[in-house]
């Protein structure tokens, strides 16, 4: 009897562990490749996953591990493993607790992601800005939204020439295997091959009203319910909410957006998520969406949508 009780306790413990780590893994949508880092960095994966999910950047877990590898010299160079001290206005390596370094560093990374998305800048800008600071986001945004080597050099030169690491993006991404995802920024992935079928599926609901919580023809559709159902009918599985769809897609620079990509918005209403609305990009700065005026085409030139635009994402065929 005692042995049976012990077995039950062990089984319950394993279920709890699976639930915890299974949930974390489900939120680590790997849109950017797989980190190829040494064991000294890999040991931080569970904590990185936990903190990244807490701040809503779980899909960047692999990239964050690569940043840790770069900042810590392979995991053994410093206790401030994300070199987070400066982001708090402290002297370099002032933080001596690795867990504090992770929390501060990932929180700072989240702020850069949000700001870069708001400014419609690309993935490379996000990575380089972890080293250069948010000022680089503004600089790239004023030069087309896409980070280039020329912009990196020009920005560093404007700050004294020896400012930061001018090859930071390359130094971080050498620790990421992007072959399994088609590239880090998402722009190298192919746009939808079945776009015509997808938009034809969507158009059958044109003119119907927006229904909060709706996710099928029988209930009506809210924004993410429409995109989930339409893409699903065309063989592409999307998660349910706008935030989850944003997290699961590869980010696309404004200059690379194609029909069939998703367009995301923030703060369109009050809720706990950063992303609050999603539509289907159809070209000519227009989207197809389920919104306050019903289901149909809407111009992205509208001042409301411009104010709340968060960025674009590409789904996988």
Automatic annotation (TrEMBL):
Transmembrane stretches, start-end: 5-23
Question: Domain of life here?
Answer: Bacteria
Segments forming domain NlpC/P60: 192-316
Task: Supply the alphabetized keyword list.
Answer: Hydrolase, Membrane, Protease, Thiol protease, Transmembrane, Transmembrane helix
GO biological process assignments? proteolysis
UniProt GO MF annotations: cysteine-type peptidase activity
Q: Which SUPFAM superfamilies match?
A: Cysteine proteinases (SSF54001), Lysozyme-like (SSF53955)
CDD domains for this protein: CwlT-like
Family assignment from sequence similarity: Belongs to the peptidase C40 family.
Protein name, per record = Cell wall hydrolase
Q: Per the UniProt entry, what species is this protein from, by scientific name?
A: Clostridium autoethanogenum
